[in-house]
Amino acid sequence: xxxxxxxxxxxxxxxxSLFLVASGLSIIFGVTRIVNFAHGAFYMLGAYMxxxxxxxxxxxxxxxxxxxxxxLVVAAIGVLxxxxxxxxxxxxxELFQLLATFGLTLMVQDIVVLIWGPDDLLGRRAPSFRxxxxxxGQNIPSYDLFLIALSPVVLGVLWLLFQRTRWxxxxxxxxxxxxxxxxxxxxxxxxxxxxxxxxxxLAALGGALQIPRDAVxxxxxxxxIVEVFVxxxxxxxxxxxxxxxxxxxxxxxxxFGILIFPKISIILVFLVMAVVLIVRxxxxxxxPEAAARRTPGLTVNPWRPLTSGERLMSLGALVLAAMLPxxxxxxxxxxxxxxxxxxxxxxxxxxxxxVGGLASFGHAAYFGLGAYGVAFLAKAAGLPMIVSLLLGPLxxxxxxxxxxxxxxxxxxxxxxxxxxxxxxxxxxIAFQWVTVTGGDNGILGVWPDKWASxxxxxxxxxxxxxxxxxxxxxxxxFSPFGFALRATRDSPLRSEAIGINGKRVQWTAFVISGxxxxxxxALFAYLKGSVFPDSLGISLSVDALVMVxxxxxxxxxxxxxxxxxFKAANIWLVSQTDLSKLVLGGFxxxxxxxxxxxxxxxxxxxxxxxxxxxxxxxxxxxxxxxxE
Amino acid sequence: xxxxxxxxxxxxxxxHILFDIALEVGEGEVVALLGRNGAGxxxxxxxxxxxxxxxxxRIVFEGRDVSAQPTHAIVRGGLGYVPEERRIFTDLTVDxxxxxxxxxxxxxxxxxxxxxxxxxxxxxxxxxxxxxGRMSGGEQQMLTIAxxxxxxxxxxxxxxxxEGLSPKIVxxxxxxxxxxxxxxxxxxxxxxxxxxxxxxxDRAYIIERGKICFGGTMAELDARPDIRDAHLSL
Lengths: 628, 234
Hints:
Chain B: This is ABC transporter ATP-binding protein. The complex is a heterodimer. Chain A has helices spanning about 1-30, 40-55, 60-90, 95-115, 140-165, 165-175, 180-185, 190-210, 220-235, 240-260, 265-280, 310-320, 330-355, 365-380, 385-390, 395-405, 410-430, 435, 455-475, 480-490, 490-495, 500-530, 540-550, 560-575, 580-595, 600-610, 615-620, and strands at about 130-135, 140, 445, 530. Chain A is mainly alpha-helical. Chain A folds into 2 domains: about 1-220, no CATH class; about 330-620, ABC transporter involved in vitamin B12 uptake, BtuC (Orthogonal Bundle), CATH 1.10.3470. In chain A, the strands form 2 sheets. A two-stranded antiparallel sheet of chain A has the order 1-2. A two-stranded antiparallel sheet of chain A has the order 3-4. Chain B has a single domain, classed as Rossmann fold (3-Layer(aba) Sandwich), CATH 3.40.50.300. Chain B is built from 10 helices and 10 strands. Chain B has helices at about 40-50, 70-75, 95-100, 115-120, 120-125, 135-150, 165-185, 195-200, 220, 225-230; strands at about 5-10, 15-25, 30-35, 55-60, 65, 80, 155-160, 185-190, 205-210, 210-215. In chain B, the strands form 2 sheets. Chain B has a 6-stranded mixed beta sheet with strand order 6-7-8-3-9-10, sandwiched between helices. In chain B, strands 2-1-4-5 form a 4-stranded antiparallel beta sheet, with helices on one face. In chain B, helix 3 runs parallel beside helix 6.
């Protein structure tokens, strides 16, 4: 019994940091409507900064002062970020906001390694909280007790701040109606900045307070952000109480889940999240959102099928690509195969995002599931390549069918957060369930059969599958199903009113998209000869998003160009610099701010301007913005 | 002259909504902006306070051109705005709603305290801790006006204050507007209801399809039934 009680307390102690970070995210979202992906990065910065400051200054004052000072320094960095970056994207679609803050996360990952090095750092123990309290023979670290007491205190302070101060009243008012607050003479800019500073302060404090419990390392950010997303989805985005309750719930589920499913404890959290989403899609303490803001879909150039000339040109490009083996070496052909596979992957996400209006932040899950599917079939069942290639993607289909069912209940940022959480859960399973997936070591020796084993024939295979996938997706875009999907994207209410079952249409699109991603993953497994959890990871999901964005979200098939350019640039970049995350992150931020229409979108704009010069006024405002 | 608007043009996306709007409001005057639904009354107000970003023209308030200023700065300068759809903060109590509107005392403008506002709108004083979402339409309308007055404005743009209110509440609204006028607040009130406008206004403009097509005293308007019938639905 005592053991379970101690386990319960451990859960409560872990909830403290989670609550701090989640409440910060919620507060920022409430006012600015931005889901700050970089919140995990600020958490991590808080931990690193606290490590440095508490090492520098001695004594109790040095420790506690160092913790608070670290959070303040990071909050100041947050203010800078808000003023330089976020102010430019408050009116951008949420996808762009998520991507820009993710780009920031990538940059911070490289920056902390530059400053603090790649090794784990062990922080100081908290003065006067070094020991443990004995409870019926079980030890409870006294620092845990401190953390358990801290979170209700923070909750109380936040409550007072929001209920009893003028600033709090203004923030709550702005959460409801930003324009009206401005129309009453309140400078929103500074309100936003101060809210962001508070949110970042809480995240950094959460990180700083972890240093006596945990090693500081440069992967903290993604670990916490996924948990925080789960917390706010369960608790309700924008609710501080919700963040508190859900943080406790998730931490306890983790603490006890380990006892029940030692290998895959995250399953329990997933089940609870699924139940909450079915019963209350907006979270336990959240409020149903008014119709979500429109994601890409404000198409300036209406979509149309290719003209016969354009069809010939595409065919020509394909023939040209197919001639690559005539003059390129093996390395170039392997790169070519990889690019073709990424075209499949990017096109599948593009279909979901641009046609379906559903920006998935965890699309790699289905890519990776397809890869694992092939690996299971080829290695465990020993099936021939062609059979594995046909059946392997079914695992992606299955994953998309299950997760998609829950995900399409939501829209906008909730959808993005949920898909990310799902992908991370799949990743954790692949990582932890060593007996089946090989864990970190992956599954090796997935080699193609003889007929496809030469680089040239594998390249032709990949190219053919890519061309087929892109063509099929295009046909779907201009099919009645595609019209229904686009109608649901542009106006859920109106399309329901003419008899379209929006959720089912979106779910079908999700399954199609996941299956196509799985096909890409299946080829990828054979290309690499192995499968690792990386194929399910966040960074791959984000690569896909960047490819779509780079090509142009508002185009029909921009992702193809996006994938080719991105992958080629990426391969070159990794060979040139160790700071590829910093460069990539900076590139994402720059693209969102300066170049939101992507390559194909920009080309289309230029072509249209050239065709109809009198329409300049409409094009002058061709930034992508959402109407509010 | 309190407020002088000239050559005001506004756009929603590519759509041109207001065409060369010109209007003037004198010290302590109540001016009505009359027009049918969709004539451009609300857009005129929203453009004056800078909520419509895509606009051009001169907006001279208290002798300074404020057209380049952001909304909050214009309002901070003493130009109050009461929106059409009430837009009270439903999660906030009456007191908190008023707090959002509070601005420091202005030397040259009437000073409003909560107590003074509660004598003007007695209903509000009885429900200071009630959330805005649980008030009747009439109470919400009074709260929006009181909230704007908390900013001690020199001039108030009042967008369709009588819309959707019962005759009894409309009577109270007339009283309140006349009381504001007595205190020395200049007012522009947009209305579809000519009877209501006549009770409170000194002068009137008529707006139709984004253009001002009449400007004059109420007596001059009454002398031109043709204009009245052509542009106003009675």
